[in-house]
Amino acid sequence: MIYHHVHELIGQTPLLELALPTPNQSRILAKLEFLNPGGSVKDRLGQMIIEGGIAAGDILPGQTTIIEPTAGNTGIGLALAAQRYHLPLKLVVPAKFSQEKQTLMRALGAEIINTPSALGMTGATKKAYELAAQVPGSYVPNQFNNPLNPAAYQRTLGPEILAALGAEPITAFVAGAGTGGTFAGTAQALQAAQPDVYTVAVEPAGSILNGGPAHPHRTEGIGVEQRPPFFDQVRVDQVQTISDDAAFREVKRAARELGLLIGSSSGAALAASLAVAEQLPAHATIVTIFPDGSDRYLSEGIYD
Ligand code: PMP
Questions:
Q1: Cβ of residue 291 lying under 6 Å from some atom of ligand 1
Q2: What is the per-residue pLDDT for 167?
Q3: What is the residue-averaged pLDDT of the chain?
Q4: Is 31 an active-site residue?
Q5: 3-state secondary structure of 85
Q6: Ligand 1 centroid to 288 CA: how many Å?
Q7: Is 178 close to ligand 1, i.e. is its CB under 6 Å away?
Q8: Cα(174)–Cα(280) distance, rounded to whole angstroms?
Q9: Quick check: 71 pLDDT over 90?
Q10: What average pLDDT does this structure show over 243-247?
Q11: What pLDDT, in 10s, does the model give residues 270-292?
Q12: pTM of the prediction?
């Protein structure tokens, strides 16, 4: 097969059974989203936001300036998609997020505007709307509240998992939540096909879903400052709160024992999957998502 454009390479990522000792002889199957061309699960969202926005008339090819708050991976996905339709792109990124991701966004043609780390994604979102008010013909997709976010995963990631498993039942679905789009959209697709799939959202310690105190964390890409609106459209059976230490321990183990170079949110997803396996009956099939790879966090000492 010969492909003709990088955009054709988004999605259809492999589902890998992890060769790890697991509680209760369960199987953990991980969707390797770091194999997308922009290196993360958010390539799917960038494509959906731009093409959906064009279809709705919110985005005019070659004209509309796209302005979006992002921790990085959505920015990279948007930059890939914006390039195809010749759309100027301004990304508002809290300064704390990895320099590698910011470098990649710039390489793909985006302009970066940094906001203070202490103001979090809420501060970046506010800044994005302030900029939009100053830039004529601009559009803020706002991934935190855009139905195209879960839709991207309901239409692509969920069906890919179901196709890979065929008739085989899925016992549990475990995925990290930042905007909550990946979790909600995928869980919706899985529950539509198999209503009894047990769904587990994963957050780092410092995120508020389980009611713990909000504080900074090293696990990047997941964690919420408020409950994602997308959670209203899906059944959330459990929230697993994973410490940074537990997430980074699994990141290192995945490299050493599985040859997998995963980011910290993938480490958290793996730690949560192992915890869930302990609660489930024997021979459970657990599906999880590895959203991105470790190469964009090397300067942050992900393997130190
Ligand atoms: N992991 C990483 C590395 C991410 O960049 C993101 C997106 N912020 C997520 C997980 C969570 O995805 P979502 O926003 O769909 O909840």
A1: yes
A2: 86
A3: 97
A4: no
A5: coil
A6: 13
A7: yes
A8: 13
A9: no
A10: 98
A11: 999 999 999 999 999 999 999 99
A12: 0.97
Is it true that 6-35+147-300 and 42-139 share their CATH fold? yes
- The CATH number of domain 6-35+147-300 is 3.30.360.10: no
42-139 has CATH 3.40.50.1100 classification: yes
Atom of ligand 1 nearest to the CA of 149: 15
**Structural domain boundaries in the chain:** 6-35+147-300, 42-139
- Rounded to whole angstroms, the maximal C-alpha distance in the chain is 58
Say which of 26, 31, 40, 42 is annotated catalytic. Answer: 42
Quote the CA–CA distance of 92 and 68 in Å, as a whole number: 6
Q: Which atom of ligand 1 is nearest to the CA of 73?
A: 5
CB contact set of 109 (below 8 Å; sequence gap of 6+): 79, 82, 83, 89
CA-closest residue to ligand 1 atom 4: 221
Structure tokens at 218: 């090293």
DSSP 31-56: EEGGGSTTSBTTHHHHHHHHHHHHHT
Say if ligand 1 is within 6 A of residue 180 CB.
yes
DSSP state of 86: T
Atom index in ligand 1 nearest the CA of residue 291 equals 1
Ligand 1 atom closest to 263 (CA):
3
Residue type, 202: V
Catalytic residue from among 26, 207, 265, 294: 265
Condensed to tens digits (0 to 9), the pLDDT of residues 130-177 reads: 999 999 999 999 999 999 999 999 999 999 999 999 989 999 999 999
Q: Give the 3-state secondary structure of 139-207.
A: ECCCCCCCCHHHHHHHHHHHHHHHHHHCCCCCCEEEEECCCCHHHHHHHHHHHHHCCCCEEEEEEEECE
Tell me the average pLDDT across 74-86: 97
**Does the beta carbon of 46 sit less than 6 angstroms from any atom of ligand 1?**
no
User: Ligand 1, residues 98, 248, 265: which to mutate, most atoms within 8 A of Cβ?
Assistant: 265
Question: Does the beta carbon of 294 sit less than 6 angstroms from any atom of ligand 1?
Answer: no
